[in-house]
Structures
1.
Amino acid sequence: MFYIIIYLLFYPILKILTYFRNKKSKNLIIQTAKIGDYVNTTVIFNKLKNFDIIIDKINYPFAKYQANKIFIINDYKKGIKNKLKLAFTLFWNNYENVYILMPNSFNLFLGQMSFAKNKITIQHYSNKWYEKVLMMGMKKIIHTKETLTIKNYLKMINENDIEKNWKNLPLIDDKQNLITSNKFKVGISLSAGNKLKTIDNETWEKIFNILGEFDLEIYFFGLENEKIFLEKIKPFIKNNYISLFGKIKLENLPFYISQMNLYISSDTGNSYIADSFNVPIITLEGPCCFKEQKPTGKNVLLLHSSYKSFSFVFKTAYKSKYDNLYAITKNQEIEIKEFITKIYKDSQSS
């Protein structure tokens, strides 16, 4: 309600001032979600080419290679003065198109205050009534829990091609590269920012037993504080493994993940980065809904949970009343082995 009142108060004067803005034709993307959603947003980068972006600070290491002007939303969240400062900056930038991919009340307020010619957003199952009011006058893409999010992102720009864009990120020269082996390489995320995405030890034991049947190396990706998860599963690992916890700058993460022959995790940002490079993926569903968001590459094994999904893109769960969310069946173990066998054989023959 607060943002509606502020917008209505400024509307008359800003409407007049629109006639004094410099003529420009630029795009603005507002996507303040975390890494996985940011990665999926890159499908619209190719079409727009030149754009400014509003992001969460965690994605700055990626965005600085991809966008023109970058606004870190975390710098403007506190205090009405900071919020208005950003709103007026967007207004004077005179964007032609504004794409609001994370439609919370603040982001929708910024979209309205931009007075852009075209404002496009996502209307979803968790929008509050005041957010729907803030969407008035915008083109709305309707999103449900059974709609693939990435396809709705593409609808925002009238496009169909699912191609994520990491073309401008830095490469690593041979002297700096932490990966020098020519063996079959398996990347693994043991956890994520949301600890609900931590796969249980029993399931990892089954997966590592399967990996142990192949001559390969395992690479663990994650933050320094995620080392604790590795300590608990060490007894199950039969292959040579390399810990990359805390050793990789975020901006270099896509390069290292692109070197993998296979990536295994729950629904993590890293799995979507792997998907961007067409790295074969095994993703365990857990609480997340594959109907709404999943890797879209050609070589993906999706392992469904025995529980009904209860965590969604726009309504994320952080706690669970269920145990063994990631438990896999005997049939799924067979699927995993068959999937790895095919990829392994293909890599040896190429």
2.
Amino acid sequence: MFLLTVLEGLPLFGMAVPGHVAIILAGFLAKIGVFNVWWVIVVATLGAITGDFLGFYIGRKYGMAFINRLRPYFFVSDAYLAKAHALLDTHTGKAMVIGRFSPVTRALMPFLVGTGKTPMGTFWIFNIIGGVSWTVSSIILGYVFGAGYHAAAGYFGKGVVVAVIAGVIIIWGYRFVNMRFHIFARYELFTLALNVVALWGLAVTIQDAWSAHSFLANFDVAVNMFMAGHVTPLWAGVANWVSTIGGTAVSIGAGVLVTIILAAKKKWRSAAIMFLSIVSTAGALGFMKEFFMRARPDNALQVIANDPSFPSGHAGMAAAFCLIAGYLLVKRMKTSWVKRELMIVACAVITIVIGLSRLVLNVHWASDVLGGWALGVFMATASILFVRYASTLVVFKKNNPV
């Protein structure tokens, strides 16, 4: 938290640092007993004051040449500078205090004050006033939010509440990045929505797997008993075939093969998205299986698996691979909306059928499959957003050398 609040006071660099979110989160964690609130106040205030002093010092030493040299890398528009200058022209002290509460001017104001003729003593007075007021108000905001956490957690469950908080942070991060760098295309809002929904679904199933009193237990048992009583040998054979074709190793192998093909064609971004999605999903599945160690149903048909049950590897890898495959193929079908829709439906159907095959064979509980689907979708969409962000910055830097 100290490092983030210091960095947020630096010109330009601070615009890409979520120091304000760190302080609010620290206030929340202090309320639920993770941190000591007084240490949070002291550390955050010292970080904010130190960061603004460093910004002031850089402005005093290097002047506007520092901003003009680096601003292309941070997508700082003339409008941002104009807004900061307009606020600064009204009153230096007021600008330093008010400027802290705006994400546009927070990382620019100390620097711009330093480029002027403001005395050092005047700067320190308003630096301390602004630092204390900003950090304390932000910590109080997080603290108040934390006060309602226990009540919400008792009603909805801690896993769901944590997922909601994480979802808010993800949405804020998406907006934070896009406002400053204009990286994400409009259609990627759908990717963001899928990511947040999948995170919520994953949290629900994780909470179920972790809970001593599983709230999906009745549903799991009902599905298991239905399959045991109604699945014929024919359907079991079909499910076994689907489960084999859509196995975890097959999905991973297909993902690696597609990655190699895309890399050979020098489609680096698409290759990175597929590779990251497959690797991250496989890693998360392995970790969660060993962590939760949930036992499988003991009435499996034909297929006997010995590894832990939650989450379903078949469902998770199928969801990740099919989502990325659909994402990459749909982008190429710009002229035919019919083909796009058919591709989306096909990818969804394949994912669903592979997951259902595990239920027909009774080698997984229903919540295992739901958790696998959610995990695969979450990892795949997160990979899309991350690679999209990272690759755009790399390309921009390559095309705009200093």
3.
Amino acid sequence: MIALLAGMAAAVGAGGIFAMVVGWRHVGHQPPKPEIQGESAHGLLDRLGQWWHHLKPHKRRLVVAGLVAGVVVLAITHWVPALVIVPIVVIAGPGLLGDPKNRDVEVLEALDRWVRALTASLLTGKSIPDAIRSTRQQAPSAIFEAVGLAAARLDERWSLPDAMAGLSDDIDHADGDAVAAALVVAGQRGTAAATTLGALADSLQDRLAAARDMDNERAKPRIVVRQVTAITGVVLALALVTSPAYFAPYRDGLGPWLATGLALVYIGALAKLQTASRPPARARIRLIGGRP
């Protein structure tokens, strides 16, 4: 009973600190100058407030939901480790069990669309620099800023090789390097530029199809892990409510520490799986003055 009251008191205290910090930062009131002996506590609260302020809205909702869920489960089950395990699962679970963004696919899709827009612009008689300027607004979001900067550099009378070297660095992707180098070559070939970019677009399509296939293969283990995690979580939750005696070894002595450690190990395994399922970064072709 004492452990339960201590856990609930800690949760309520943490929630109160969060509320005070967020409210203070929201209204913008300056706190009174702290005493010297309170300097470290004030710094901790300030860093906590800054961390909360920089969280995205959905992350804030997850943090609040995790803390509330931990207190609720603790009140129902009287199992103190739930105050730590449940918030960790609620906060970290969606990110670790979800599908990470595949930047290879995003960049390849964006480059493919933009190169085809460039090809169409070249067929109207424009040069490579003019085609880049005229298609800057058609660039997909993944490369929109990089293309805009390249067009601005050309407007400032940068040479095509130098502007493309900047584009390559801004995109920061191996296929972006290939496109930038191809644009330099196409700019030097003049009338054959549209043909060069057409062949490049076909190559990007092949790369994109291969990247999507690999992404689908990498998603299969994540699907299995999501299913296993969901089933295990439901079974443990039902057992925790209907058969408390099953968790009796985890209530006293080293049991709570062992339960918390096992949960952290599983979270770490999910994080490792998430990292391993991301495609490795490919070596880039650095462009210096437009020459690979």
